[in-house]
Amino acid sequence: MSRDQLRKAKSDIVALTNRLDRLKPASGHEHSDVRQFMIRQELRRVGPVVVLGDSITEAAPLPKAICGHTVVNAGIGGADANFAAKTISALLNGTSPALIVLALGTNDAHPVPEGR
Questions:
Q1: pTM for the whole thing?
Q2: Which helix (H) or strand (E) holds 90?
């Protein structure tokens, strides 16, 4: 490749990168951050049944109540056992669930890339 071709390729990459940056959401938030906020709002209820899980749980049509306790769907897409271990105590801080159900594992079933 000539120097002119390299310069043009570099210029094209910079232009494309700038275009892609404009497509990113302006808010800069992650889905899991929004889900955790929403879950914390639901956990204000007294004595709920909390179902912690991944995207399967998040999308599950859970009942509104179990044995008279409101059900809080605390599913977060992409959650795995490591994510849950890091976030459960902060998520449940200051709440008194009647029951906690863990519905995790699907995202732990794939091989983890090296360096992660």
A1: 0.65
A2: helix 81-92
Query: Which residues, in sequence order, are CB contacts of 48 under 8 Å at separation 6+?
Result: 42, 69, 70, 71, 72, 95, 97, 98
Q: What is the pLDDT of residues 51-88, one digit of tens each?
A: 999 999 999 999 999 999 999 999 999 888 898 888 88
Q: How many CB atoms lie within 10 A of CB 89?
A: 8
Instruction: Give residue-wise pLDDT tens across range 37-55.
Output: 888 888 887 789 999 999 9
How far apart are alpha carbons 86 and 33 in whole angstroms?
A: 13
Pairing of strands 65-66, 69-75: antiparallel
Domains belonging to the chain, first-starting first, are 31-108 (3.40.50.1110)
